[in-house]
Design brief:
Blueprint (H helix, E strand, L loop, with lengths): L8 E6 L6 H11 L15 E7 L2 E7 L7 H10 L2 E6 L10 H10 L3 E5 L9 H9 L6 E3 L1 E6 L2 E7 L4 E6 L2 E6 L6 H16 L3 H8 L6 H13 L4 E5 L8 H11 L3 H7 L9 E10 L3 E10 L2 E2 L3 E2 L2 E2 L3 E4 L4 E3 L2 E2 L4 E5 L9 E3 L16 E7 L5 H14 L4 E5 L4 E6 L2 H13 L5 E4 L6 E4 L3 E10 L4 E12 L7 E4 L11 H11 L12 E9 L7 H15 L5 E15 L3 H10 L3 E7 L6 E9 L6 H8 L5 E11 L3 H11 L1
Parallel strand pairs: 1-3, 1-4, 4-5, 5-11, 6-11, 29-30
Antiparallel strand pairs: 2-3, 7-8, 8-9, 9-10, 12-13, 12-21, 13-20, 14-19, 15-16, 17-18, 17-20, 22-24, 22-25, 23-24, 26-31, 27-28, 28-30, 31-33, 31-34, 32-33
Helix pairs in contact: 5-6, 12-13
Bound molecules: guanosine-5'-triphosphate and magnesium ion.
The site of guanosine-5'-triphosphate has 20 residues, from helix 1.
Length: 653
């Protein structure tokens, strides 16, 4: 088979949590002549390795599988040529790959599926394939048919070449004679593969119709074309832990993965033009400064070059656990660039032309904590450290809540935030404690009251005097605070009236339950003054006293924030989602199939914010990690009973 040199290509290794991505990454690196694996891979970290397989350069990106770190996988997909989706052979677990397969479809991105752990599998690969195919419109084509010894899978038949191999641990599989037992399943799989390919090729279709067997080369050539155009997804089998199926995967990648030029075309990057890179990952490495991992969409890019006003200060390639300093990077390479201080993750630098290299926006945070420094001494360094943390991780959102006086860090889940706080401590030297954020309760009144406030103080020479008569009344929800001046005849001199209005609004920031009072009007109807002893200050004090005294008498009510929540789940979990929402005082509004996602439902509900804090944890644990939700503040609702007691306790504490 003629094979032209393609230039560097990038593979993103993605898949559900714990499916064996890192083990596969290590096995691929080792098979490409890199170091053998050194024990269990660290979990939850994106890793990048540069390797050379059969004289061709590759970059592999090992993505974390946790749904809480999905934004890291997304970032890798944005710059990779092809995705290898690692999944479990158990058809029941297939559903966990659904969001990924859909995403790849949305992106129009070429992908292969590596069905891992076949050492543990006693079922039928056919069933795995059927379960996976239900999750995607893109045809899945089985490249290998397993050879079994008893229940154990000991080798495979390559469906196209019709050659049989036995797995050999740590080395290439051994070519054997085609066992009788696989002749039939092999030719069935081949026919299925050819049929799918024939959909894209008239010459092949003719052969199928006339029952002529196409040659392996014909099939190889077609497969390459359709795989690299993302028209089909090849499915391979193996066991990453025992190095089974690793070289087969390498060869499939080598042969069928699109070239960097094809990917550039898919992403709208013109073939001609000046250097251009895109940053997909940012790391603040201690004294080494900031490192921006980037894909070279168009090279060569030289160290020291200035792209869009940013001078590259150092250039590295990921070796095997180390970094290799280089001076120039070619089209398609993945490199780390130094000192791009003002450059954010996702940024495109250089001659971008009309290229629209959309970088995935992180999904809305679903879990938040309020953080405080463990040591007050660190307070001054906290904001700088947080800034760097958020710069590295676009999945994080930082917010100051002035009402509650809290610093809120939000992210994609409990583990995500735990990891972020650990990084804050280890990389930026600031230890923080996390608390459950306070709920921004509000309160209002249901009864109008008339209130007299009078300040009369005689202390030595100069006294203080002010007298106000206020009408305090409820307003409609959402109308806010209103101050009305109805003074006639100078009962309160004009110059003091603004002070009364301001003091009334200020005093309403803490009502009968200890929370800001909303939707009331305060009308100044009458009052009195003293030519010498009255002042702005005196009127403020009198007004404040009046409001504080009035609130408990005005039939106060606590208001809790309610959110409009949309939960998305596979429809086998729709009833579960409804039950969970109802269990959290949610009011179900209805459900419908999610647009463009057959088999998935959106369940809509109105849920108190107080119930959402750890909702994602329960939702995920009840839906194989597949449930997600979006939310948006909707309105304030009157709260009663236990909620009020807890809110008061929180306000006091
Ligand atoms: N039996 C068997 N175990 C495997 C295989 N591949 C990986 N494992 C084991 O599965 C566990 C998880 O493997 P990892 O490679 O860390 O999985 P991962 O997909 O990288 O996990 P995350 O990055 O956390 O999503 C480890 O204990 C591996 O040793 C396999 O082919 N067969
Ligand atoms: Mg991993």
């Amino acid at each position: 088979m003629p094979h032209t040199q393609t230039g560097p290509r990038t593979v993103a290794i993605v898949g559900p949590y714990g499916s064996g991505k890192s083990t596969l990454f290590d096995a691929l690196v080792a098979a490409a002549g890199g170091p053998a694996r050194r024990g269990a891979a660290p979990r939850g970290n994106t890793r990048i390795a540069h390797c050379t397989y059969l004289d061709e350069p590759w970059a592999l990106i090992d993505c974390p599988g946790s749904v809480e770190l999905a934004h890291e996988a997304e970032a890798a997909l944005a710059v990779a040529d092809i995705a290898v989706v690692v999944c479990d052979p158990d058809p029941v677990r297939a559903l966990t790959v659904a969001p990924l397969l859909r995403r790849l479809e949305e992106l129009g991105m070429p992908a292969m599926v590596f069905v891992n752990r076949i050492d543990t599998f006693t079922g039928q690969v056919r069933d795995t394939l059927t379960a996976l195919q239900e999750l995607t419109r893109r045809p899945l084509v089985l490249r290998e048919v397993p050879i079994r010894d008893g229940e154990a899978i000991t080798g495979y038949v390559d469906v196209v070449s019709e050659r049989a191999y036995l797995f050999r641990r740590g080395t290439a599989s051994e070519l054997i004679q085609l066992p009788d037992s696989v002749i039939e399943p092999g030719s069935e799989a081949r026919a299925a593969l050819v049929e799918v390919l024939a959909d894209h090729d008239d010459a092949l279709l003719e052969k199928v119709v006339e029952d002529i067997k196409p040659t392996p080369d014909e099939v190889f050539e077609r497969l390459r074309a359709e795989e690299s155009l993302a028209h089909v997804t090849e499915v391979l089998l193996g066991c990453a832990e025992r190095d089974h199926g690793i070289r087969r995967l390498w060869k499939a990648l080598r042969h069928d993965a699109p070239t960097a030029a094809q990917t550039a075309e898919r992403r709208g990057v013109a073939a001609e033009g000046g250097p251009m890179v895109q940053v997909f990952r940012t790391l603040n490495a201690g004294h080494g400064g900031k490192l921006s991992w980037a894909r070279v969409w168009r090279g060569p890019v030289k160290d020291g070059a200035t792209l869009d006003g940013n001078r590259i200060g150092g250039m590295w390639r990921a070796g095997n656990g180390d970094m290799l300093k280089i001076t120039e990077a070619a089209t398609g390479e993945i490199v780390a660039l130094g000192r791009l201080d003002g450059v954010a993750t996702g940024a495109v630098l250089g001659d971008a032309g009309n290229a629209e290299l959309a970088f995935p926006a992180p999904s809305q945070p679903v879990y938040s904590v309020a953080i405080t420094t463990a040591d007050r001494k660190d307070d001054v360094r906290l904001s700088g450290a947080l800034h760097k943390l958020v710069e590295e991780d676009p999945g994080l959102v930082l917010r100051q809540d002035p009402d509650m006086g809290e610093t809120i860090l939000s992210g994609q889940g409990e583990m995500h935030l735990k990891g972020a706080m650990e990084r804050l401590a280890t990389a930026f030297g600031v230890k923080v404690d996390a608390h459950r954020p306070r709920i921004p309760f509000r309160e209002t009144i249901r009864q109008p009251v008339h209130q007299h406030g009078r300040l009369k103080r005689q202390t030595g020479g100069h006294g203080q005097f002010a007298d106000v008569k206020l009408d305090i009344a409820p307003r409609e929800r959402g109308e806010g605070f209103l101050f009305i001046d109805k003074i006639v005849g100078g009962a309160v001199p004009r110059q003091y009236i603004p002070a009364v209005g301001e003091a009334a609004e200020e005093a309403a920031r803490k009502g009968a339950f200890g929370y800001p009072v909303v939707d009331i009007s305060v009308t100044l109807v009458d009052g009195g003054f003293h030519t010498v002893d009255s002042s702005d200050m005196a009127f403020r004090t009198a007004t404040r006293m009046a409001i504080q005294e009035a609130m408990p008498k005005a039939d106060p009510v606590l208001l809790e924030p309610m959110h409009h929540v949309t939960v998305t789940v596979p429809n086998s979990y729709t009833a579960t989602a409804q039950r969970l929402l109802t269990g959290r005082r949610g009011q179900i509004l209805g459900y419908a199939e999610r647009e463009g996602w057959s088999g998935w439902d959106d369940v809509e509900a109105v849920v108190p914010e107080a119930e959402l804090h750890d909702f994602i944890i329960e939702l995920r644990s009840q839906t194989m990690g597949l449930g997600t939700y979006r939310h948006q503040f909707d309105h304030l609702a009157e709260a009663h009973g236990k909620v009020v007691a807890e809110a008061q306790k929180m306000a006091a504490g």
